[in-house]
Write a structure and sequence with these properties.
This protein has about 110 residues and is mainly alpha-helical. The chain is built from 5 helices and 2 strands. A two-stranded antiparallel sheet has the order 1-2. Strand 1 and strand 2 form a beta hairpin. The longest helix is centred in the middle third of the chain and has 17 residues.
Length: about 110
């Protein structure tokens, strides 16, 4: 599949994840968010940038429980809980945070 951003064709998987994470930038994230009906705000960006940093640092993606706990440690308990994260990404916080961050699909996500 292909995602068109600023007249550039970007290859994606069947589920809409970027094939090449180096293609990612904020415009790509905005386009993906629009396609997935996620209106981005500062809270979304905080989580998107968090998971990008996590992936760069640890070279792997966490499962949902580890993701939530890592957010709680880094950003506070008020953000590191599933209720808050599901408000931002109702169809799956880890899956959609990774997708919008240009990262691979987490192995634990359907």
């Amino acid at each position: 599949m292909v995602l068109m951003v600023e007249n550039v064709c970007l290859e994606t998987t069947e589920q809409g994840f970027l094939v090449n994470s180096a293609d990612w930038n904020e415009e790509v994230a905005k386009s993906m968010a629009e396609l997935n009906n996620i209106p981005l705000n500062d809270q979304h960006w905080e989580i998107i940038l968090f998971i990008r940093h996590y992936y760069e640092k640890y070279k792997h993606l966490p499962n949902a429980r580890v993701f939530t706990k890592a957010i709680a440690r880094a950003l506070g308990e008020d953000k590191g809980n599933s209720r808050y994260l599901h408000k931002l990404f109702p169809d799956g916080p880890l899956k959609y945070a990774c997708k919008l961050a240009g990262l691979p699909k987490p192995p634990t996500c359907l």
